[in-house]
Amino acid sequence: MEAINFSSMELNAQFRLLQSQLREVWQAIDVLDNSDYDILVIPSLSLDQRELQKIEGFLHYEERLLFSLIRMQNPRTRVIYVTSQPLSQIAIDYYLQLLPRIPFSHARDRLLLFSTYDASATALTQKILNRPRLIERIRTSLRTNKTYMICYNSTPLERELSVRLDVPLLALDPDLLYWGTKSGSRQIFAECGVPYPDGSELHKNTQDLAAAAAQLWERQPTLQRMVVKLNEGFSGEGNALLDLRLIQDKAPGSASHNERVAAIHKSFADLTFEAKGETWDNFSGRIPELGAIVEAFIEGDIKRSPSVQGRITPTGEVEILSTHDQILGGPSGQIYLGCRFPADESYRLTLQQLGLKIGQNLAEKGALERFGVDFIAVRQDDIAGVPQWDIQAIEINLRKGGTTHPLMTLKFLTNGRYDLSTGLFYSQHGCAKYYIATDNLQKDRYKGLLPTDLMDIIAEQRLHFDTSTE
Fold first, then answer.
1. Which domains are delineated in the chain?
2. 361-414 pLDDT, tens per residue?
3. pTM (2 decimals)?
4. I need a surface site. Which of 19, 37, 124, 305 has the fewest CB within 10 A?
């Protein structure tokens, strides 16, 4: 079948028309009814590919959306899962046999797998768009008017694929991606009245960025460090630290504004980068394209990095799904390494309230599906010594994030529910569940292990999940 060519305007109009159908098919994730639908899963990391290259093993991230198989608890639901390289059948079988009250063979017959057989660094969605015959095979496998598409993050690539397949995309309209950038996040925090660190607007050259940093220092003369952030950085890899203590002789009151700007601009070459192997030449080369901001680095003896995860439904409702305390690493503690669920009880309900406020602002702008908000919490005890937490919002992620698949895997395993009144997750037996999840776990001794080896280790060490005991 010959591909239909759309103008940009026609493609956008058709995309929005398709998305409007989602209101009719929407069903809450907690309701596993007998609706008869196909779910097309496109786990593409359609992010800036040069920034993505900083994440080791990012090709394996396509497997993160395997939690979507939870939907197959509905015996009438089919899942169509597309990947760059074929998935291990052993891994697929492992997931399917965990489905409660569903025969393995019945679930396997309702799962269709497609692959581009392409391990290049190109985004999966682009690989699919480059293969018209694959698009046609996927299209013919779907049931007309009974399918919706989900993805890791939404970009113009996913929008085009949605239109070419004639399938609505349950994700953000790419025209709204700005609200998930560093500068867009700060604008929303200001609109919502949510506390956030002092910082700058978006700048596209290093001279303006240095001037903005000088102005920030002048507003906060006691500031010790600043963070320089690419506007579209990922997992903290687009961040760098500027240590003002090294140019203290140019501090406010000790030098002129112009001298301060010049000193900061020169110091950019000595930034401490979060990403391995990053250099100022490469980093600064991205600024004209992506833009960058400077932001006050929040100091504190007892400091945590909690987050809240939410969802905006096609009907415009905002749902809070979870809170986490993030586990961070890297040179200055800005790289995401994992998370603990739930967030500390001292502030988890506050996170929910702030997340709801931000989610409602996003919903008013037309945002859809997943969003996450990262915070910094610094303990500041009151006069009586009672712990108090100063919480400031850092950024919004308008996509599935590092805390999405751990929570959804828990839901997959227990079919439980999140309780807003406590911020806890309860299994069907009423037991509160907690977890620590790693992200991008790597060890040299794992090299050379095959999926069969992993299953042997799981069996020998009795690590397999037991649904009877949870």
1. 8-171 (3.40.50), 198-296 (no CATH), 303-439 (3.30.470.20)
2. 999 999 999 999 999 999 988 777 788 999 999 999 999 988 998 999 899 889
3. 0.91
4. 37
